[in-house]
Amino acid sequence: MPNLIKNGAIVTDDWTLLDADATDIPAGKVIAPLALWQARREMLEQRDHLGVWLDTDETADQLGADAQTLSLIAVNFPGFMDGRGFTTGRLLRERYGFSGELRAVGHFMRDQLCYLKRCGFTAFHFAEPVDLDAALQSLDDFTEYYQAGTDQPLPLFRRRA
Amino acid sequence: MYVYDEFDRRILTQRVQQFRGQTQRYLAGELKDNEFLPLRLQNGLYIQRLAPMLRVNVPYGMLNSTQLRKLAHIARFYDKGYCHVSTRQNIQFNWPELAEVPDILAELAEVEMHATQSSGNCIRNITSDQFAGVAEDEVIDPRPYCEIIRQWSSFHPEFAFLPRKFKIAVTGAAASDRAATQVHDIGLQVLDDPQRGVGFKVLVGGGLGRTPVIGSVIRDFLPEAHLLSYLEAILRIYNQFGRRDNKYKARIKILVRAMGPEAFAEKVETEWQQLKDGYSTLTQAEIDRAKHFFTRPAYEDIDAAAAAAQLQAQASEQRAFARWLERNTRGHRQPGYASVVLSLKPTGVAPGDVTDRQLEIIADLADRYSFGEARTTHEQNIVLADVKQADLPALWQAAKAAGFATPNIGTLTDMICCPGGDFCSLANAKSIPVAEAIQRQYDDMDYLYDLGDIDLNISGCMNACGHHHVGHIGILGVDKKGEEFYQVQLGGRSGTDAALGRVLGPSFGRLEVPAVIQKLLDVYVENRNGDEQFVDTYQRLGLEPFKERVYAKSH
């Protein structure tokens, strides 16, 4: 069943997100917690598709330039008031050159999609069931912005003219 | 004053539409209370003790007459006919209907106003000096930088869900700081350095609230071009590492204190080196664009000596006018002009409250006497910044008729006072009745003038919206087993020599407060040297003589 917003469309997720304390790694496309990836990196890197997820208190610096070796990075939002993941997204994109799928997972809300998009997120997997068709509309709550973002590196003052 | 272009209008229109949709979803039961909470807060809407409260931003205190008339209309049509000037220069409406708030925001957008990020865990309204651009002691007009920061911080995608609220103040007159930059999350002092050009001294981690702290300087000189990237670096460190486990430990001051200001500054510096010289570096064109909105109005060439002589003659004829002139007007960098403070502190009115009709009168006075502009102050008054001295007698008469001419600016009865327990659901105690009791006790203007400048600040709880820590006399409402008590502090200052007050001793019941104030004043009057101010006498004598007098057993 379609359960993921990805690149502005509703699709069926084909990745498996492993729990923080997972030890078994199933076949297929998995998103490993950071600690598991660090512990079993050589083995995991043999895979064609590899994702890693960062918890909210894990920073982009902990992946650093290794981010570029991954197909997908997910950032967990334990609650919608916890905005650390917004910075994580920007740093992965702007500082560490990550160009794969950047996915928000957990308890963020629909009304944050536009800002998440501006911070580099391209996929959104809600922990709770939401009306994804309705949520899609929030991606474009704003179409013009004052400051730079990953979607628009030029702040408005450089484009105003 | 800043004027919106098509971009500003489009962004604000989209915001209003976004919030309209969110409100509809909430009213339809599609958004839970806790989900709607951050959304409404970031649009200025609190749920208060009796009704919602809508806080409208007044960017760095600037208002034009069109905006004043719109605020009057909103007060009349959507509220109970009045509003309140807050201690961060904003305007608060106490009785709007939730369902009508999107309409109010749409009306505000028509006059280039908004309630964006006026509350919530995000970057709040930028505050500044109410005499920006006209003060004789100003180095650089801070308002263009305030506007640049306003735009950068509005709808900033990365910093909308910070650990806690975030307040920035900017002054262009660091030697006489009227913006309280030392008690803000970030304080910026604009400098004009002969070698390095225009830039900022950057303070971080100041604040009032439960844990009052004077900010630490983390950078002596930041060239103006790097303003935004440096702010971004500070915010980014805070967003990642500020505490989120305890809301009372979540302000940036706690992080700065935990790391130490030097270590914090280093971390910011490292982050900034990555951001520096990127696209967010301000261009000269952008700085010039911002500055051209804040040029000098079309002042007349005036013979200043003649104007002063005429004013002197008028003042000597009318004592009441002379008093008003002395307390409620101040000097101006333009010869023949003055700035006028309209007092929102007449006895019997909650400090900072203003009615719909009064807002319209202010708009008319601004149009007639001050190039159509007015300013709100963090002391909760209104300033007409550019008044010809020759117009002062007429303005005084008009202000008197409208109730704005109480000649008490800077005196004991020009109190800073939060809405307190009458309105606010956070408050532990009422503050307005305390203010009123003190005003009623001190209705003798001769005595007030003899006391001179005294900042008396009242907060109804430790969140300190009434800035009690930085009042020369601070009063804090506390709750003791369900009863309201008031703690008194002495020696706070909010200006360039910012200091936090010290607690006098055990707290008092509400009815005791005026008598306590009288004892403090008696100690001052008996001990002052010449025209020494209250706070200076306190500094010289220390807490002890005040304490002894107040807590002495009466026999």
UniProtKB/TrEMBL annotation, chain A:
Pfam families: DUF934
Protein name, per record: DUF934 domain-containing protein
From TrEMBL, chain B:
Sequence ranges assigned to domain Nitrite/sulphite reductase 4Fe-4S in this UniProt record: 119-274, 414-550
Keywords: 4Fe-4S, Heme, Iron, Iron-sulfur, Metal-binding, Oxidoreductase
InterPro entries attached to this UniProt entry: NIR_SIR_4Fe-4S, NiRdtase/SiRdtase_haem-b_fer, Nit/Sulf_reduc_fer-like_dom_sf, NO2/SO3_Rdtase_4Fe4S_dom, NO2/SO3_Rdtase_4Fe4S_sf
GO molecular function: 4 iron, 4 sulfur cluster binding; heme binding; metal ion binding; oxidoreductase activity
Domain Nitrite/Sulfite reductase ferredoxin-like, chain residue ranges per copy: 53-111, 349-401
Name of the protein this chain belongs to: Nitrite/sulfite reductase
Biological source species: Exilibacterium tricleocarpae
